[in-house]
Amino acid sequence: MYSAVTKVLAIMVLLLSLMAQPAAQTTEKQRTLENLSDIEVVVKYGRVEWPQEEWQSNLLQRLEDRARQRLSEAGIPITQSTDKAGNRPRVVFTVTLSKAENATPVRVDVAVHQRVRLWRDEAKELELATWSQHGVGGPMVTHKMVLDVFDGEVAEFLKSYTKANQASSQISTKPIADTSAEFSSPPNAFEGLKGTSVFVSTRRDLFFDGQPPVDEKFLQEAVETRLKEAGIKVLRYANEAEQAGHARLTLWIKLSPPNVQAWAPPIDVESTFSQLVRLVRDPEIQTQAVTWKSEDSGSFAKTDDGSPVITNEAVLAVVNRQMDEFIQAFKAARPPRRSH
Question: Contact at 8 Å (CB) between 254 and 203?
């Protein structure tokens, strides 16, 4: 039996995720949906942490059929081809189901992937997500909850796509011209970079009251120091950022209070490295796109009497692990100095 409070909180979190995403899509992101056609629809699992139940036997195919029907009914030009090879854009729904403690029961991520070129180096062409968001639900993993969250994310994509194309009288249904060659391995997006700007942000859980329990300035300075010690320049001025293609490392720190079931780890750090890109199909449209991403989590620290608590040091331990990953990826693209 779940308490009435738990049920109310579950509904609140679901509605918040469906109606008010943590970060609203910017006009820049929305523009990447303009004149998008010949779209491939993909539905896949991100993570499933227990044996499948009977209703999951053909879940992905049913969700894909559901999404294709909704998009077709809305007049969005999706591809009818079954050929998965090629360079057509894709709208990808990733379904994650979990019964683990401190984990979101149901999460659906939706992202639009398409070919882009780095603004700072057009020779580097990659396939990246240019528009994305997610929704969550709980407190239990059920067939209805999965459908509710999935339908919500389909609706959000439809709304953004329609808004981006409302000025167009008609969207072309012709396949997008394939002007770029297939690549067996994408170029290294870090290659040619010497530095990055840094942004550290702490998101308090809905249950926190007052100021975050950690010092953002302390964490920002710790990250910058670690980069400098690794020989990576921290960019601070507009001209430097422009030369580096507006490269930006963002650490989003999400904290959950002790003794509250918040469907999240006590400490969760999501790190993204983004750069300015142009769409291959329309170079006039540009946006920030994530070229590297990592996520890690940590546990509460303990007070002298054994009570759980969040401290700067506990958060910094997770941040430092993320920084080690980033520094390794960044430096892997830079050839070692020749010895004299």
Answer: yes
